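Quarterly update from the structural biology core.
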Amino acid sequence: MTSTLLKLFIAITSRLPLPLARLLGRLAGEVSWRLNTRARFITSINLELCFPGMDGRARERLARSSLQHWGMTIFEIPVIWHRGLKALDLIGDVHGEDKVRRQLASGKGTIMLSPHLGNWELAGLWASTLGPTTILYQPPRQQGVEHITRVGRAKAGATLVPTNLRGVSALIKALKRGEITGILPDMEPDPASGVFAPFFGVPALTMTLVHNLQERSGAGVLLAFARRTAAGFDIEILEPEPALYDPDAATSVAALNRLVERSVEMAPEQYQWEYKRFKQQPDGQPKRYPRHSRK
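Predicted structure, tokenized:
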């Protein structure tokens, strides 16, 4: 039943003009805020952890705005999937395009990071137009919409590979060929595939995949996200600090989180704060997400 409703939602939403999709998404986020949903609960906890020095009222405004942007993202994604390459017309400026050109001209592979910030589906679509691209793909829980997701993400010619050893092997081969790989760097990995590193000062289990790929391929790393604007989107490109290329995994992973932090600080209201980023904690640390009781 869930898959059926999701497919119906995607089918209807995908044909909406972007302003209407955003309006409906903003309203959905506002409803989530007013109903004191678990999304609001998790968002508030994350913001309190990450911005403890922020004024309480300012943090509440940020949490409310974040839920509205979360709703907009949900309604925008079917539109982008449906439009395919035509969705690129929604992009205004590409800030840092020189960084991309310099990296691609090096002849080395490119690890393109796209955190859950702005609209990561559009960022992935844009990155796929730069050259042969392989994207790490985690199938959705609802198998009924997997085909729709795969088709939408591959409309610019990207190759999607699973989040397993076969997929990682495909990423390494693509990078050694001088191609592009796309990775979401802020998903919480399995404990065996990550280490704890600070994210806005809070221990966060963070993937070592980016470090391992870079070490084995010699690829360069960039971060790209599609920042929501009044007219559409701008692509923002960031380069990592040199520490990300350090052979020590802990040093590299800490630099990875700092890179994601820098991107989030550019548009904190557009980050997916309702995700349990700190669910896993080092031994001896308290749980970050108590049971939610709606009032």
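The chain is about 45% helix and 15% strand.
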